[in-house]
Design a protein that fits this description.
By secondary structure, the chain is an all-alpha fold. The chain has 14 helices and two strands; from the N terminus they run H-H-H-H-H-E-H-H-H-H-E-H-H-H-H-H. Helix 11 packs across helix 12.
């Protein structure tokens, strides 16, 4: 009896997740090309949001320059493919350690010298800006002129080279999002996850309890950076062009973090729900503006700001925690 009671909440959470996953798996059979592209964007931001959530939501380290790891992943994989013909999956094996090493440098400089809070966030922005300026003047990747990946007409999808139709890219990013969700769940309920939560809630108390806060904060930064780098690889091969002003910009970092903030920082499902809500509403706004022939520069950014303001005022913990409690899918914030 006790075992059944303990298994009840987990079962209630597993059923809707299975239904949602099934809906995403079969979605390409029922949507047009435009909606398929929207779903790819939703899953992309859900994946990137989960990667950022590892650093901020679990360990409490605010990064506002996560576009740095997206840009590194995209440029490393695209450069290897363009100049040496090395496929994206092998390129990912190079991008991951480079992104993790860059995260380690930022983390070491910050945590060793006591840079925390808003100053740590500014440091992450600074490194992203350094990368943007550097790549903007790096002739090997065509600098500000942009790096363009060769595109061919393929008679079939080539998963190894990530060359094919949008449906293939959809299933790739869906698999990546599911992988990120499982990874985050395993991390959160592991020893390292409990240490991260202790650091997030009260770092001095965690240090007094014997937790090596420097080491575990470094782990959070490096894992988050490594996971984020795949978002850059996917971005490069999906769009086939890279410009430093786009991939390293602060607006890219803001787009990554808005999903978790709106969905619920520190929760497992919050980044996914936030990406679905935010991207879905943004695309609806674009469709409405297009239907009425409106061209309002900056309307999307204003819309993001309004959404963020409403959530902060009405649901400071994000949309997912109260929704999960109402549906009986969660016993707490997680």
């Amino acid at each position: 009896m006790i075992a059944r009671l303990r298994a009840g909440p987990a079962s209630r959470r597993a059923i809707p997740l299975a239904i949602l996953l099934a809906a995403f798996v079969f979605a390409p059979f029922f949507v047009n090309d435009y909606l398929l592209t929207v779903l790819i964007l939703i899953l992309y931001f859900a994946y990137a949001g989960q990667a950022w959530n590892i650093m901020m939501g679990f360990a409490g380290q605010l990064s506002l320059g996560h576009a740095l790891y997206v840009g590194l992943g995209s440029y490393v994989a695209a450069t290897l493919f363009t100049h040496f013909g090395i496929g994206p999956w092998l390129g990912l094996l190079v991008a991951i350690p480079i992104a993790a090493a860059c995260g380690a440098v930022i983390g070491y400089l910050a945590f060793r010298f006591g840079v925390a809070g808003v100053y740590f966030a500014i440091l992450t922005i600074a490194f992203a800006e350094f990368a943007r300026i550097g790549f903007d003047h790096l002739d090997y990747v065509n600098a500000s002129s942009g790096l363009f990946l060769p595109v061919k007409q393929y008679a079939h999808n080539d998963l190894w080279l990530l060359r094919g139709d949008p449906t293939m890219f959809y299933y790739v990013i869906l698999a990546a999002t599911v992988f990120a969700f499982v990874l985050c769940r395993q991390l959160l309920h592991s020893r390292i996850g409990y240490f991260w939560l202790a650091i997030r809630e009260d770092e001095p108390a965690a240090r007094a309890a014997g937790i090596n806060t420097f080491r575990y904060k470094m782990y959070a930064v490096m894992v988050s950076a490594a996971v984020t780098s795949f978002a850059g690889v996917f971005y490069a091969f999906f769009y086939n062009n890279l410009f430093p002003e786009q991939v390293f910009s602060i607006s890219r970092s803001i787009e990554i973090i808005l999903g978790p903030i709106i969905g619920g920082i520190g929760t497992l499902f919050g980044p996914i729900l936030g990406a679905f809500v935010l991207t879905g509403l943004a695309e609806t706004l674009n469709a409405v503006m297009g239907a009425f022939g409106l061209d309002l520069p900056g309307a999307k950014q204003v819309f993001y700001g309004v959404c963020l303001l409403l959530v902060v005022l009405a649901l400071p913990d994000g949309v997912w925690p109260p929704l999960a409690r109402r549906l009986g899918l969660s016993e707490g914030k997680q």
